[in-house]
Design goal:
The complex is a heterodimer of chains A (about 375) and B (about 325). Helix content of chain A is about 45%, strand content about 10%. Chain A is an alpha/beta fold. Chain A folds into two domains: about 300 residues, Rossmann fold (3-Layer(aba) Sandwich), CATH 3.40.50.970; about 35 residues. Chain A has a five-stranded parallel sheet, sandwiched between helices. Chain A has a two-stranded antiparallel sheet with strand order 4-5. In chain A, strand 2, helix 7 and strand 3 form a beta-alpha-beta unit. In chain A, helix 1 crosses helix 9. With about 325 residues, chain B is of the alpha/beta class. In chain B, about 35% of the residues lie in helices and about 20% in strands. In chain B, the strands form three sheets. A seven-stranded mixed sheet of chain B has the order 3-2-4-5-7-6-12, sandwiched between helices. In chain B, strands 9-11-10-13-14 form a five-stranded mixed sheet, sandwiched between helices. In chain B, helix 1 runs parallel beside helix 7, helix 3 runs parallel beside helix 4 and helix 8 packs across helix 12. Chain B is globular and about 60 Å long. The chains are: A alpha/beta (about 375), B alpha/beta (about 325). The interface between A and B is large, with 43 and 42 residues.
Chain lengths: ~375, ~325
Amino acid sequence: MASGSETVSVLDEHGRVRPTAAAEPYADRALAVPLEQRIGFLKDMVMTRAFDVAAANLQRQGHLALWVPSYGQEAAQVGSGRAARAQDTIFPAYREHAVGMVRGLDPMAIIRLLRGMSHGGWDPAENGNFRLYTLVIGSQTLHATGYAMGIQLDGAMATGDPETDEAVMVYFGDGASAQGDTNEAFVFAASYRTPQVFFLQNNHWAISVPVERQSRVPLAQRADGFGMPGVRVDGNDVLASYAVTAELLDDARAGRGPALIEALTYRIGAHTSSDDPTKYRSEDELARWSERDPILRLRHHLESEGVAAEVFETIDAEAAELAADVRRQTVELPEPPVSLMFEHVYSEPHPLTDAQLEWLTQYEASFGGAS
Amino acid sequence: MTTMPMVKALNAGLRKALADDERVLMMGEDIGVLGGVFRVTEGLQAEFGERRVFDTPLAESGIVGTAIGLAMRGYRPVCEIQFDGFIYPGFDQITSQLAKLTNRYEGTLTMPIVIRVPYGGHIGAVEHHQESPEALFAHTAGLRVVTPSTPNDAYWMIQQAVASNDPVMFFEPKGRYWPKGEVDLARPAVGLHDTRVVRVGTDATLIGYGPMVSVLLTAAETAAEEGRSLEVVDVRSLSPIDWAPLVASVEKTGRAIVAHEASGFLGLGSEIAAQLTERAFYSLEAPVLRVTGFDIPFPPARLEKLHLPDADRVLEAVDRAFAY
């Protein structure tokens, strides 16, 4: 299914350059990616994988409240994330660790969120316009659409200058495709012709519910009914993910309207550290998709392109270093201050929260533990 | 001073907000060419253009959700929800996103969004068109909730709400849209979150907001003819509540009756009664009594007069307060 004729794919499962028929409009762009950049993609993916595995282990050791693995979805995320320009704005769901990292987010910000130190954890303006994770499924699709409407109002698109024209990309999953908010976002985006790309990672499972329960048609096909293009891409093929996203973001920035990308991928990991996927999916299915590991595929491709073994060793060493660093930093994280939970409920003074913070501070001090 | 109905005062206030700050936008269903089903936004699209005053697809969650995105981009959207009972499709975006985003962003994001909601009864309409859902929002941390009772308050409070950097739920008593009142276009009498004593009295305090204030004033008028002096307090801001004038009034009168159209169970009246009991216990000669809509879905229009508290029901409660 992942490489059916209607799916854009450039690298086959063994990393060989074998564009599908559907890849025709995108293959040149995919294959024009210089070798150095392809190696960069591999590094992005390997670094994210190392971070993801380290964080999952930290959760098991009690250092994180929860972990949300990105394992298996790295190509869809790195390809699309690298296709965005610096001026674009990214609205993630909550599993887009690779996108965050390629946009320059310190992965420790994600750690702080899932350790229970913060509901947010970073300032998008200082982290590649990568906005905060949104945990209610599909809610961010509307925020992205409103933001794209704002770009239109600002006239920050369709000026013909690719260095300044802006677009928005919003990430969501196959489960979110059933949400009302997502469908309303499609309606608003198509109606106002907003500059945005809807990037749907179809990882085949919404916790325990298979994608077949969400849709009777390929999800990319839904776009037709809303009046925008829909493209299905092999999400485990980083070059295809990159080329399709780059093309549709160019269209968005140029004022040619929104588009939906369905990236076929697979959540090799659990939904979260609280999930047990053995209860609902087969060993066979997992094994089949593990063979299509996006990192192995790109590595095979790069090997066939003559990339030296030392290059891979260097990347692996850097990734191991990142993982060690994340482990070290996590165990040293301080407790958040008590004031955090009151300080930003409102942006202007508020008598109720101000009084409650004061009361709690005095109450805590009454035990003599403070100062 | 000039005289106008609340719809015109809101229209004038919104026009001023649009003129004062180009980041202010108006969005909602039928608010453009039509000027809204109640005509609150009449003429604004013609004056400020389709870029700043625009009709949306018919989807309340979409309206609130895209307004959030526009605010993230630096705009200050004013959303119109057509009727009180149509706000629930947008409830999730309001309570889970709008109310929590400033907190989630830990100070790096403000949410200067106003959600205008025509609410309450007295218009004889069909189901979902006469509800009073204000307590749901007052119970939600992160929102500010206000409601004017007069054209003057409507004119100033809508501008103050637009100027707020926090999200404001702006409940408009649609049963009071058309009676005229004086509006002082020069300056506001009080701030957005100030409680106001609207009639001075000595024997008991009547507390209400929005559509109930005129009912309380009628009740006080009737009581005065019978020799009882009732103070009337317009709460105006339901979150946060400005307690000092309420406490001062009850300390003076020793009795309080709080009234609203919304159902009584866990309504604003419950919170006000509890707070006054905590804050003015030794001044109270009687329990704080509540006069509210019944705990039922808003009834068919032919029965609404029996459901909505009127001056007689308020005075019945006053009698009970004096019987303690």
